[in-house]
Amino acid sequence: MQTLLTSTQMRLADEFTIANKPIASIDLMETAARAFVKVFLRNEFDTNKSVAIFCGKGNNGGDGLAIAHLLLNNGYENIKVYVINFSKKKSADFAINLQRLDESRCKKVVIDRATDFKNIKADIIIDAILGSGLNKALEGEYAELVKQINNLNKKVYSVDVPTGFFAEGRLTADYNGIVAYKTICFQRPKISFFFPESKLATKSYEVVEIGLDEDFVQKQESEFYLVEKKDIEKILKPRENFSHKGTYGHALIIAGNSNTMGAALLSSMACLHTGAGLTTACIPQSGLIALNATLPEVMALPRDEYTRIENPTKYQAIAIGPGLGISAEHERLLESLFAANLPLIIDADALNILSERPDLIEKIPEQSILTPHMKEFDRLFGEHSNWWDRLQTAKNQSVRLKIVIVLKNQYTFVCSPNGKVYINPTGNPAMAQGGMGDVLTGIIAAFVAQKYSSLNAAILACFVHGQTGDQLADDKFVVTASQVAKEISGVIKTMVP
Ligand SMILES: NC(=O)C1=CN([C@@H]2O[C@H](COP(=O)(O)OP(=O)(O)OC[C@H]3O[C@@H](n4cnc5c(N)ncnc54)[C@H](O)[C@@H]3O)[C@@H](O)[C@H]2O)[C@@H](O)CC1
Predict the structure, then answer these.
(1) Which of 47, 199, 247, 447 could be joined to 243 by an S-S link, Cβ 3.0–4.6 Å?
(2) Mutate to test the pocket of ligand 1, among 6, 127, 130 (most ligand atoms within 8 A of CB)
(3) Which of 160, 163, 168, 216 to mutate to test ligand 1, by most ligand atoms within 8 A of the CB atom?
C-alpha cells in the first residue's frame, strides 16, 4: 500500500530527505524538475512548440524556473518565463534558480499585476504559480491571473498541483484555480485527486518519483492508503492441492425480484467465477428457470414472503440486496439475519431498507460490509455536499459500527473499522453501467466465503473488479457487468502467487 501524505507531511518528507540523504534542497528541486520534464517530453516531444512558464516565488515557482532551464537544454527554443511578482516573499531555492535563469538565454517577463498580463501566444502553458503551499482560496490578483490563463484555452501542465487546488480537504464546486490538462505531481498522488470534484482542476495526473526518502514517506501516520497490485498479490491465496468445494466456502446471495432477476444472476455469476466452493441464490420462484438455464452450477433457495434463512451458520458468506426490492417482508428478512449476528454483505435494496429504518443501522453485525454508491450512502447517513465530508462520515461510521464501508466511485474508498481508508485505483468510466455493483457484491461474497477477512475481501474485490474492467476496456467502449463477471477468474489467475 502506498501511504498517501498531506501537504504538511510532504514538506516533512522534503526536510527529512535533505537532512538525512546526501542531497541539498536545490538539488532535490532539480531532481523534481527533471522528473517533470521527462514526462512532459514524452507528452510534448515537439521542440518547435512555444512554452510559457508561469512561476510564483515559492518552491513551486522554483521548480518552474528549473523546468525552463531544462527545456532549453532539451532543444526547446521558444521558452518564456513569467515571474509572478505579487508578493515580496520568495523562497531561497526560487532565488537561486532565478539567478541561474538570469544567467541563461531564457526570456523572462515580470508580472506585477494581473493586468500586466496580455495575450499569450504560447502553444503550451506550464503552471508553477502556487503548489502544495496553498493556504487559502485564490483571491485578488492571483484569482484574476488564473482566470485569464484559463481563458486562453491552452493546454496547461501543472507542476505538482494545479494552482489554487487544495491537495487535501474539502473541495467546493466554485473552484477558481487553474484548469490543467495534466498535472505531473511529486512522489505521491494528492489525496484530492481521488475525489470526483478534482476533475474541475485537472483532466489527468501522473506521479513522478523525485527521490524523497521512501522509507520515511511510507512510515508516515496516515488515514489514506493507495492499494497496489503487489498488495493484492500478497493477499491472494492459491487453490491448494487436495482441496475441495468445502475448502472454499458456501456463499448465499439473497437477491432478485420478478423485474430485477438479472441482479441476482449477475451477483451469483460473479460469486461463482471468483471461486466460492458453493453458491446458492435465494430468489423468487419466478427466477428459477432463468437461474437453472444460465447458471447450472448455482443452487437455488426459492424465496417467498415467509422465507427466513434457517441455519445461517451453514453459509460462510451471506450477501443481501441486489435487485431485492423493498417490502415489509424483506425488511423482516434482513432483521432476522441481523438477529443471527453474522457478518453480512449488504448492498442495494438492503441498504435502502436500512435507510428507512435507522434503528436497524445500529444492529448491523460487526465486520459486515456495506457497499453503497453515493446516493445510497447519503440516504443512509445524511446528505453531503462534497466528497471530503462524505468520506469523513464513512470513516467515522465504519469505526463506530465496526463495519467495512465500500463507498463506490471511480476510485472506490474502502473504509475500515480501524479508521483507515484504502483507495482502489482500478476501474474506468467504461464500467459505468447497471449491474456492475451486483457483480462487485458477488465477488466480495466469494472472497468472504473463502475466509478472507471482511477488510481484505473488500479490498481484493474492488481491485480485481476494476482490473477486470480495465482489461476489458482496452478494446471496448463499454464494458458490461456480465463480461466482468465472466472474466474475473482469468484476471485473478494472473495475480495469484
Ligand atoms: N517534497 C516537497 O515538498 C518538494 C516540493 N517541491 C515544490 O514545492 C512546492 C511547495 O512549495 P512552497 O511550500 O514554497 O509553496 P508554494 O510554492 O506552493 O507557495 C508559495 C507561497 O505562496 C503563499 N500562498 C499560499 N496560498 C496563497 C494564496 N491563496 N494566495 C497567495 N499566496 C498564497 C504561501 O505563503 C506559500 O508559502 C510543491 O508544490 C512542489 O512544487 C519541490 O521543489 C521538491 C520537493
Answers:
(1) 247
(2) 130
(3) 160
CA angle 483, 484, 487 (to 5 degrees): 85
For residues 350 and 329, the answer to whether their CB atoms sit within 8 Å is no
Q: Is 336 marked as binding a ligand? A: no
Contact of 21 with 213, CB cutoff 8 Å: yes
**Alpha-carbon 374 to chain mean position:** 14
| Residue pair 233/495 in contact by the 8 Å Cβ criterion | yes
Residues with CB under 6 A from ligand 1: 10-11, 13-14, 28-29, 32, 56, 58-63, 91, 130-136, 138, 142, 159-161, 186, 210, 212
Residue nearest to atom 37 of ligand 1 (CA): 133
Pairing verdict, β 345-346 and 369-370:
parallel
Determine phi and psi for 233, rounding to 5 degrees: -65, -30
ipTM of the shown complex: 0.97
Domains of the chain: 2-220 (3.40.50.10260), 229-495 (3.40.1190.20)
175 annotated as a binding-site residue: no
Q: Of 201, 228, 224, 210, nearest to 6 (Cα)?
A: 224
Q: Does 136 appear as a known binding residue?
A: yes
Q: How far apart are CA 191 and CA 201, in angstroms?
A: 13
Pocket test for ligand 1, best of 54, 91, 94, 134 (most atoms within 8 A of CB): 134
